[in-house]
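Blinded run. Sample ID left blank on purpose so nobody reads anything into the name before looking at the predicted structure. Input follows.
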Amino acid sequence: MTLVKIGGHVIDDPQERQSFLRDFARMEGAKVLVHGGGKLATRLSERLGIEPRIVEGRRITDDRTLDVVTMVYAGLVNKQIVAALGALSCPAIGLCGADANVVPAHLRPKTPVDFGWVGDIEPEQIDARFIADLLAKGLTPVFSAITHDGGGHLLNTNADSVATAIALACSADFDTRLVFCLEKNGVLCNVDDPDSVISHISRDTFQQLRQQGIVNSGMLPKIEGALKAVEGGVGEVVIKHARNLLTPIGTRITTQG
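Blinded prediction complete.
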């Protein structure tokens, strides 16, 4: 099973999104898609007079902001993707974490930063059997990054975290591959050279790259999360550009090598 996570420009640009979805529909075997919301939630918030607040790259989610992200992520964007995949002969079903209680979460602690209605996930709480049943029926689950707390309240959750948690949960039943589609060709040795892709990273090589300053800033938590995923049972994590979904171009994250 291949789980692909998209966000950012792929969501915002209709042509980029359609091109990606054509490639995704052509992928063979069981597959799952997890998506963020791009900048649409920010634009809608501003139109409604709700000033977006971002701390450490994460959106502060108060009551009004939760309404907006739920409408955008679990509503508009999710159903646009499902409809587009249907038109490409890839029958999909749009879901958020609250549907069938498939991805429960818990409210993030309010210290050191109170992010509001933001959720964190424990992979062992995900209903992987429900996802497996959908895949067995020939359906492609499409998850937005909205979860719930089990007590009737929706939660905004980081899409990378949703993708990683679902991949980990499904790895008990499937040989699972996790693909993060970014706006670069992979992890780069030289940020100014888009072709300087590091083809493979393990725990040992990651430490070397970090010490050398080759990998830093926002890429550090992504690689750390990818390493935790493969160490937890996911067979392989790949970081690549959405345009390269069907090509070997990208960075493979594995436990060894």
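Unblinding after everyone has recorded impressions. The longest strand covers residues 177-182.
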